[in-house]
Amino acid sequence: MHARLMHVIRCLCLVSAGLALLVPPSSAQNADEPGSRWQRLRQVQEAQRENRQATVSQASLGAVTANLREDRFGDRDMLVYVPSVLPPPGQRALLVALHGGGGNARFMLEHLKINGLAEKHGFIVAYLNGSAAARVGGQRLKAWNAGGGCCGKPYEDKVDDIAYIAGAVEHLQRTHAIAPGRSFGVGHSNGAMMLQTMACVGDVFRQVASLAGALVAEVPSCPAARQHTIRNYHGEFDENVPLGGGMGSQGVIRISYPSQAESKAKFEAAGGRYVLQVLPGAGHSIEQLSRSSQERHGLTLAEQVARDLGLASP
């Protein structure tokens, strides 16, 4: 009995120590103060709870569980959905999906919910992983170095995610006989910013779908923008990456983002096409964006993205 009591006490001490690492001293910042770290943590937890409740099984959307494969490029794992029936080699299309900051490949798969469409229309979806977002939790919480301070440890460490994603796409194109020019990207939040940066400075994707992103590339202009298209789907009430730019009231990373008007002007001044679609009533999460898309167009966000990129017929 005594040994069990001591075990419980030790566990409580460990939990208390863990919480102390997350919560700043009260003298530094009031927990109830708007924008405090504790308040932002609670907001992130609430968004994660909402996302978990909204998760729908892939099988219910027409995907086949056995068609999801594990692959690896460099030192990172990825998940690849290969539909049961594919076009002939050289006529196939690839959609590369990038998670947001603090997410991972599995999270993006579960919340984008596009595998059923891939099964129906015969395109391959690859869910890539960024690198560790912070000093702890790196196996699960990942991010991309999109530039402009975003996001976390990958930006601080100057991780070359442009080169990594380009190499991963070449690997996937060889492995699955993808047609030249038939590789597309979709990303959420930090992943959306990563794809906007890639459309600005590289030629891996001619078209990308950006979900709640902005153009944070640290270049004065976009050398690769000509003949490239960024389609940004943005919530009217996004409090993480505001439509009008600046620092959002939610989100753990404290960055002043460019506005959509600034992002569009920079990209189109270099010859690109920036298509902004504001989704009424929506916030930052994929679920909120998709709900608004369904109310406005009768299409889930995944359906709209697949159609806009030419991966699915109307």
Helix/strand-derived category reads: alpha/beta
Query: How is the main sheet built?
Result: 8 strands, mixed
Helix content: 25-40%
Radius of gyration: 20 Å
Pattern of helices and strands: HHEEEHHEEEHHEHEEEEHEHH
Structural notes for this entry:
With 314 residues, the protein is of the alpha/beta class. It is built from ten helices and twelve strands. The protein has helices at residues 2-22, 37-54, 105-112, 115-121, 153-156, 161-176, 190-201, 260-269, 286-297, 301-308, and strands spanning 68-73, 76-81, 92-98, 124-128, 131-132, 142-143, 178-188, 207-211, 229-235, 246-247, 256-257, 273-279. The strands form three sheets. Strands 1-2-4-3-7-8-9-12 form an eight-stranded mixed beta sheet, sandwiched between helices. A two-stranded antiparallel ribbon has the order 5-6. Strand 7, helix 7 (190-201) and strand 8 (207-211) form a beta-alpha-beta unit. The longest helix is centred in the first third of the chain and has 21 residues, at 2-22. The protein is globular, with a radius of gyration of 20 Å. The N and C termini lie far apart (67 Å). Mean pLDDT is 85; it is low at 1-41 and 50-54.
